[in-house]
Amino acid sequence: MTKKVFDRILFGGDYNPNQWPKEVWQEDMRIFKDANINSATVNVFSWAKIQPSETEYYFDELDEIIEMLTKENYDIVLATSTAALPAWMFKKYPEVARTDFEGRHHKFGHRHNACPNSLVYQKYAEKLARKLAERYGANPRVTCWHINNEYGGECFCENCEKAFRVWVKDRYKTIEALNKAWNLEFWGHTIYEWDEIVLPNALGEAIDYDNTAFAGISIDYRRFNSDGMLNNFKMERDAIRRHDQTTPVTTNLMGTYKNLDYFKWAKEMDIVSWDNYPSYNTPWSYVALTHDLMRSLKKAPFMLMEQTPSQQNWQPYNSLKKPGQMRAQSYQTIAHGADTIQYFQLRRSVGACEKFHGAVIEHVGTEDTRVFRETAQLGEELASFGDSLLGAANHSRVAIMFDWENYWALEYTSGPNKDLKYVDQIHQYYRYFYDKNIAVDFVPADADLSGYSILVAPVLYMVKEGMKEAIEAFVNAGGTFITTFMSGIVGESDNVHLGGYPGPLRELAGVWVEEIDALAPEQTNQIQFVTGEEGTSRLLCDIIHPETAEVIANYTSNFYANTPAVTKNSFGKGTVYYIGTELDTSSLDLCLEQALETTDVQPTLEETTPLEVVLRETEEDAFYFVMNFHAETHPLPKTFVGTTDLLTGEVLSEKTVLHMYDTLVIKA
Amino acid sequence: MTKKVFDRILFGGDYNPNQWPKEVWQEDMRIFKDANINSATVNVFSWAKIQPSETEYYFDELDEIIEMLTKENYDIVLATSTAALPAWMFKKYPEVARTDFEGRHHKFGHRHNACPNSLVYQKYAEKLARKLAERYGANPRVTCWHINNEYGGECFCENCEKAFRVWVKDRYKTIEALNKAWNLEFWGHTIYEWDEIVLPNALGEAIDYDNTAFAGISIDYRRFNSDGMLNNFKMERDAIRRHDQTTPVTTNLMGTYKNLDYFKWAKEMDIVSWDNYPSYNTPWSYVALTHDLMRSLKKAPFMLMEQTPSQQNWQPYNSLKKPGQMRAQSYQTIAHGADTIQYFQLRRSVGACEKFHGAVIEHVGTEDTRVFRETAQLGEELASFGDSLLGAANHSRVAIMFDWENYWALEYTSGPNKDLKYVDQIHQYYRYFYDKNIAVDFVPADADLSGYSILVAPVLYMVKEGMKEAIEAFVNAGGTFITTFMSGIVGESDNVHLGGYPGPLRELAGVWVEEIDALAPEQTNQIQFVTGEEGTSRLLCDIIHPETAEVIANYTSNFYANTPAVTKNSFGKGTVYYIGTELDTSSLDLCLEQALETTDVQPTLEETTPLEVVLRETEEDAFYFVMNFHAETHPLPKTFVGTTDLLTGEVLSEKTVLHMYDTLVIKA
Amino acid sequence: MTKKVFDRILFGGDYNPNQWPKEVWQEDMRIFKDANINSATVNVFSWAKIQPSETEYYFDELDEIIEMLTKENYDIVLATSTAALPAWMFKKYPEVARTDFEGRHHKFGHRHNACPNSLVYQKYAEKLARKLAERYGANPRVTCWHINNEYGGECFCENCEKAFRVWVKDRYKTIEALNKAWNLEFWGHTIYEWDEIVLPNALGEAIDYDNTAFAGISIDYRRFNSDGMLNNFKMERDAIRRHDQTTPVTTNLMGTYKNLDYFKWAKEMDIVSWDNYPSYNTPWSYVALTHDLMRSLKKAPFMLMEQTPSQQNWQPYNSLKKPGQMRAQSYQTIAHGADTIQYFQLRRSVGACEKFHGAVIEHVGTEDTRVFRETAQLGEELASFGDSLLGAANHSRVAIMFDWENYWALEYTSGPNKDLKYVDQIHQYYRYFYDKNIAVDFVPADADLSGYSILVAPVLYMVKEGMKEAIEAFVNAGGTFITTFMSGIVGESDNVHLGGYPGPLRELAGVWVEEIDALAPEQTNQIQFVTGEEGTSRLLCDIIHPETAEVIANYTSNFYANTPAVTKNSFGKGTVYYIGTELDTSSLDLCLEQALETTDVQPTLEETTPLEVVLRETEEDAFYFVMNFHAETHPLPKTFVGTTDLLTGEVLSEKTVLHMYDTLVIKA
């Protein structure tokens, strides 16, 4: 079960010696050694340097960098540089630029600026990836390929429009099928020829960036856009594979980033990597959620490709990380499945928009900084693990469904309540498990559910072909399924499952939802559990008719007082909970507690603690990560009294306490 | 006086069987019958279906629909389908699309998407209307023609620019007159040739959508745009009239919608129809205002073309209508002059942006829903009226002026206070009459005032040619005229009436307004009536010199303390009140109460009640509508003790109370 | 030292008789005389009138205006009319219009609408200025040339793009130097040919209007844009000088307007003029700041080219000026260095967007208004000064640095805190001196500092070549230098001064700033002075290592509690204060008080008073201006007991009090 991709924990990050004079390079090597840095991500944005014109390639500088890092025995994460096009390409081929949502064709600027359907871009990106693989693929210190960088954004140019028509035709085959899928009879939008289709931006069906007149075309555009960028990724990957069949290939993802269907992408990646940039006020449960999501993409350890040693620059308020915070954040990352800790970046930029982004070596240029010392301490600790942790698994009996198509469809929906947001709903449910130290996997819409005891699918708005059967099979076999309001409403093209909500989930849940009330932010309803506890509800309130379900809680206000807000249904050997409204935290906890009672789901630690406790296991070992993310100091859980903290070698006692950001790693 | 357009109260709504398989049609007919539905609006968005290409027309499906409805004895409201262009037309003639305020030429998408000055659009819209009239005009069950749908929006394309120059030349005849009207000497904008004129969008004189450097051109653009769309309406109407000289023609309006001068439109319509979509927090007085405005357009009963049975989708928060709310809202609509109750829509959409908009038949597809039951109850009640109510008049001695050109001009004004909004001011005055159950008509700027005892004209900013004389004649003859700050300021081209505010109203009001102070939202002034009552004022404060007027209330704060805030002037046989600032509700009530004392204006019901009470009268009968729109329960007014509620047959007693949304209809 | 540009205090303002019929002109002359108006600014927006087509010029009307004013012995401020292009020029040469930040090429509309790099515009603007000078330059009553009007805005058209490349090439000479300056190796933006450069608007490197991916190019674009408009100014000035070598030339500036580097502009202007438009809630200290800044541009008296007699129109809330407020504001203006008081405008517009902007003659058209009477009173008072005040100097030992390039660079910076605003920071420091009645000069980055005792340079983010040496020399010679967080960070191209913050100021300040924490608006830190006083800090918090500095105050919260927040360093004969965070007002006062103690800086008045007291001195006389800008009444400072108020002739006693807006002028 242990999946080791690397020989050691990669510890390093983005490194751009090309932006610095040569004398700095040797100084870097010296300083990095003091921090146990063993890895560098290079060549992320060097296309213009490597290919100064359409016909010339220049590798001398990269040769020197690779040679230096090789000599120093670094694990080199070699990027392909295709995330920002050279200026000459815009001048010569303006079509390589993107056309934005407003319909404006851009000129040279920024990064992530290639039209994904530009043949010129594709031609030269493929060629560049191939040349890099040819030149460096055989170097054993090239440990990982890093294609492009943070794929994202969109293009609405003419080339994309033409490509979209091809994609649509390929998906629907006939005009009739398309008209039906997009429900184009509505408002008389029926088309008769494929080239009547136009992209759904501000000049087409879009209302604004987050709203659309026809969700069908807008969701399909997102599918097309995600696929188009994925094709670019695959094109580069395949180019690399012509010269290097073994080195793992990745690209760095961005957590819950909306535009790309990461579960689909992960299938094409050898290892997932991602960039973790919480804000000063992001809940730690949300950070944990994104780690679990990234690990779940391949159900395997991942790379932390980027985090800042201390400060960011692009947030509105870029607070410093407090002493110990970066260390705790790094261990949380590892606890949830990371096999690498990499920073953006190793030396802080002298200019341009990221110069206020923290780095291992700050502008002062020395190792005499708090940030460096904290980095070095972590480096030393990580080195002490050797390869013992690598590939260790996170086991979970709880699955939460995370489906990018649902994400898109739910948020495109016009009505009933504009404040309904997909990730926010997912997080409300994840938060419960996080607080209880119960391990969670995220699963896609087409997941194999056999390994799980509980499946939680909040706002499972879009139920696609086969999902009903899969979930019914899961529950039939004894699984517990928890779903909510705004579930089972539409199929894959955003057309409603007629016959009563929650459509394909109706028999499972044993309820019919007749109406969905929407509450404004200043409004709430009251609820009461049949066991007596009271709570509040908001946002959306299903009006539920139990068919085979029993009532768990009722509304006690509004005209639907005394009708169910939460129900429970027996189905086959399993149980289905239907939570018909957004509950306050305590009420949601009550529901989920009850749902868990009849399952085999156990917290990582039996005893109750406000500390975060996570377990990773290899075939040989099991590691507990114990972290305090609260301002208050908390005692060591009794379970661990007498064990040894691997990080300090300290034997833990009844008197051991964890202050904020204190972290322990304990071998089970 | 009774104007009957229909033979029965039309009860039905938008119906799109074309979006559904045939088996659903018969099910619809069965279910609708259970709800006493007798009318359907069809063919609203079917252009693409009816005309699949430039040369083909296809009526088979519509034939079947009309045939089915005819067989079932429906009153068919037949739409012309021109509110959304077919996709092929955009592809073949991109000029049919609109250019938006930002100067972006759109592609295919949305509805209401035709450039009103596109000859291609006009050619095919006219032809379609003609063909429909030719084919269905003789069908006696086609009870009403519904042209286009919710006309609105704007276009700023080159064709519109050229058309605007023609319109402007036609209005002003000479360049000199134009330069003067638009005051183009200001900022040296003098033009010398007509084609130097450019449309006032973001690339021209507009500052942003609601602001402009030259109100003259921007107001004229709105006149031109309203006229242009009205010409399209007339074009279709005339096309219909070639084959059908008798069936009434309408298009559905949108209450206080800003862009179209509905008083001008109404002259071309046989009957007014409109769509009533209050938000969850719209005051009921505002809903009543819009009904009265729509009725006043032709001073005749109107059609409620659309309302939702329960839920909307396009508001931020789409609450359900509570039990009884839709019924009460429907009777309020009838009370204020409607002869039809039509829903959008009869069967809920399976997809696209309105799928969360409520319908008589919901997604569950059955009649077993609260929404359906409430609809059916209403249907039964309405059927019981037969034709007794049809054409009944609402009589009023109070006129409030509502002038779209004022609306535009006032809100384009740069200074003195950006929070000044036309409809908000109108509503503050209307609210008083609503609370007192005093019937109100709205009148246009060129109204015949002879039937009224009181004319209220809040913020009568633009006083056009002839208005001074008309109002003076009205007051001379004994009328009471009430006007406010920001009145009499400009003429029809937004140039100031020089010589002292309120310009042409100065002699009438007997005051000279020397200065207009603007208060920020956090600021207020204090006022005191000469009779002792105290109040507050805000927004704008006129500094008034009474000339012939007497003082009703003075400011008691700011540097203009002890100068008048409200005055009263005798003029001829009549009286003029000038209210120089925005007053708190109680203070405004005091003013209006005093104004009413010397008139013959009576409330519909002598006794005071928080219930809404409205009277409609035919030549034979008089119907009182009594509705409770308050959360609290209120007793039946004593006047009605012993009468019978037509809706339930119940004899009303001293013990009768009305809970929220309870409604009675009582024959006088 | 006294610099008299005029023979009397100019009292008048913008005058547009061309917008009025001739009969009004004579009425104007009569009324203006009653107000002692002696000056008029004419021909500001008359290009379209003067040049009705490409080939015709028409001066008859202007001749008449000049003749009338000459006859009445006015000081004529003659504008060149080039601030708004004629409509025909847009029609014939669309390139004269600007392309905006969004990339939209505009059509005819507004003013300030010329592309600064349009050769067509330049050709005709130069020709117009030349013709005006030829025709009117010899008229002795033409007292001042007023070029264009409120230069501002930007253009991003193709012509500007080409001109920018030339400007850039001229600045950097080689591509290598350019790549280095803009740090284009970052994100691989390296260019190889000059025409790969594109303008940094929304289609290029800009993120939004206030943010950019590459500050280097964006700052250079602002330099280029400021220079380009300045070139247009110089072009017109030089055209005038061909026919008129002596009459002073100005253009009206706009205080802290961001886009133009006014210190650079002032070098080309004979006298500075500016337009003062505070909002209803602008602090008076801020108004004083802008006056001092405008005076400091040339370190000489300036013209108040525009203020409103009472009301504005383009603010959200356009309050009236209260009785006495305009007078007090005018004397404040004179106190800080104005030799003219000019209004916008003399007669209120009949139409277009400024019709609600106040004027000396209001819409009523008579002199019987409060506004007129207050104007007339002021006119009489000013006339009584004769030429005694003209050219009087404001002496100051305190310099505050105000550098437009810093302004741009600081606000383009991505991180650490988006709420950091340049002028806001400057104002926090200025406010201290204002409250203490200590005179302040503003100085540019390349100032001669020899005349000052204190140099305050808040957020001196950009330290350019030579500044370190200049400031060190200043301190070495005994000066006191006060600087703050976010100082010494970058050089002129926004590349960081490596080696530890505050870079070139590190030795001066005697501190090394290791980190910069950013606080969100809801966060604060606590501080404590070594002398015991406590305070709060916010926004940004430097973490400081004193090197040679001593500690003045420490943080007492956060993880950097007990590290310095404020330090003081001895350097040469002088002292340097480093204020590492944004302090509350009292704490900042404590710091500055301490800094002043060891200098020769004295308040204008020894005694403490909440009144504003300003001193202007000629070689013969000294004038104290004493003003009360507080709602509360305050006693006359004892110093002035027994003196005479020049404005009223009143002898001032111990009982004299100043109510709000009361103003005294006292000869020392």
From TrEMBL, chains A, B, C:
Q: Which GO terms describe its molecular function?
A: beta-galactosidase activity; metal ion binding
Positions annotated to bind Zn(2+): 115, 155, 157, 160
Keyword annotations for this protein, in alphabetical order, are:
Glycosidase, Hydrolase, Metal-binding, Zinc
GO BP terms in the entry = galactose metabolic process
- Which Pfam families does the protein's record reference? Glyco_hydro_42 (PF02449), Glyco_hydro_42C (PF08533), Glyco_hydro_42M (PF08532)
> Record's InterPro entries?
Beta_galactosidase_C, Beta_galactosidase_Trimer, Class_I_gatase-like, GH, Glyco_hydro_42, Glyco_hydro_42_N, Glyco_hydro_b
EC number(s) per UniProt?
3.2.1.23
Using the record's annotation, list all stretches that form the Glycoside hydrolase family 42 N-terminal domain: 14-384
Locate the Beta-galactosidase C-terminal domain: which residues? 611-667
Is Oxidoreductase one of the keywords UniProt gives this record?
no
Annotated catalytic residues: 150, 306
Tell me what reaction this enzyme catalyses: Hydrolysis of terminal non-reducing beta-D-galactose residues in beta-D-galactosides
List residues binding substrate: 111, 149, 314
Q: Domain Beta-galactosidase trimerisation: where?
A: 397-601
Annotated GO CC locations: beta-galactosidase complex
**Highest taxon, organism lineage:** Bacteria
Family per UniProt? Belongs to the glycosyl hydrolase 42 family.
* PANTHER family listed in its UniProt record: BETA-GALACTOSIDASE GANA
Protein name as catalogued: Beta-galactosidase
The species this protein was found in: Enterococcus phoeniculicola ATCC BAA-412
